[in-house]
Specification:
Blueprint (H helix, E strand, L loop, with lengths): L45 E5 L4 H12 L7 E4 L29 H7 L9 E4 L4 E4 L2 H10 L18 H16 L1 H6 L4 H21 L13 H17 L16 H9 L10 H9 L31
Parallel strand pairs: 1-2
Antiparallel strand pairs: 1-3, 3-4
Helix pairs in contact: 1-3, 1-7, 4-6, 4-7, 7-8
Length: about 325
């Protein structure tokens, strides 16, 4: 999954009945440890373009840290505020320059790679070939999880155990359709019926996940898996952005007895808090959707205490 450019939903992303339908990522090549794909995992070869504000890109930032790939895969953080020119590379506070290509806009990477019809983050760039390898976050995190182990500081950390792969895939599909993408289907809906359909599925899913987490510390037991990190990036944005900006306002995450502690548990996992930049998250959404927020005012609240005790230890893990 990729960010929907966080401008207005494109015409091609809206169905005739006003529902939001996300476009698929364009670049889908894979880096492999043995190079059989044509892209061999090597230190210094690949560069990651991300936004701290984007939930899809956030996944790749988390995996790069968890696996200890900071010195293997370099990274550029784009500006969180978009305009008609797209994702800018500005070196403003909280962002970084582009040491690889010196791009001013991420769209330049797409032009060079042959398709700039839908410019999104994250982007995995190959320095050797001078092109985009992949811009699908779900595939990039799996590359980081396994293919770079020869160079990772933490090759022992695996978030897609083979014994749970089928169950993780099934759960990911459910969470993606109803929660990860569900908030966008609710927020970008252009008719009341489409909005209410997305809204209902979103909160039905959150209710089900909350009930599931009453029994286990994480979604699939006592250990964190890929399914948890894919859910986390939506949950951490929910109360600050999706409740108000996307009208996902039946309940907040803080109102859920299990999801609220689960969110804090994941946030307090070593090294995760620095990957969450709430200022960039709020500016990104509230200042780049003029039809939803024409005055571009960024709310000051809500007050979030993600460092508060989570109490999830009682479930093991």
């Amino acid at each position: 999954m990729t960010s929907p450019d966080t401008r207005e939903a494109l015409p091609s992303e809206l169905t005739k009945d006003g529902a939001f339908r996300r476009r698929d990522a364009v670049f889908r090549d894979h880096v492999t440890a043995d190079g059989s794909s044509g892209y061999r995992a090597e230190p210094g070869r690949y560069h990651l373009y991300v936004s701290y504000a984007c939930p899809w890109a956030h996944r790749t930032i988390i995996y790069r840290h968890l696996k200890g790939l900071e010195e293997v895969v370099s990274m550029t953080v784009v500006d969180p505020e978009r305009d008609e020119r797209g994702w800018a590379i500005t070196n403003s506070p909280g962002t970084t320059t582009d040491p690889v290509n010196d791009f001013a806009f991420l769209s330049e990477a797409y032009v060079i790679s042959g398709d700039d019809s839908h410019v999104t983050v994250p982007v995995l760039w190959d320095r050797h070939e001078g092109r985009i390898v992949n811009n699908e976050s779900s595939e990039i995190i799996r590359m980081f999880d396994r293919e770079f182990d020869a160079f990772a500081k933490h090759p022992e950390r695996r978030y897609l155990p083979e014994a749970l792969r089928a169950e993780i895939d099934e759960l990911n599909a459910y969470v993606y359709d109803n929660v990860n993408n569900g908030v966008y289907k609710t927020g970008f809906a252009r008719t009341q019926s489409s909005y209410e359909e997305g809204f209902g599925k979103l909160f039905d899913a959150l209710d089900e996940l909350d009930a599931r987490l009453a029994k286990t510390r994480y979604l699939l037991g006592s250990e964190i898996t890929e399914a948890d990190w894919r859910l986390f990036t939506t949950l951490v944005r929910f109360d600050a952005v999706y409740v108000g900006h996307f009208k996902c306002n039946l309940r907040r995450i803080i109102d859920y007895p299990q999801l609220s502690g689960y969110l804090r548990d994941l946030y307090q996992h070593p090294g995760i808090a620095p990957t969450v930049d709430m200022d960039q998250i709020k500016r990104h959404y509230y200042r780049t959707h003029p039809s939803l927020n024409p005055m571009r005012i960024v709310p000051v609240g809500p007050a979030l205490d993600l460092a508060a005790p989570h109490g999830r230890e009682r479930l093991g893990g």
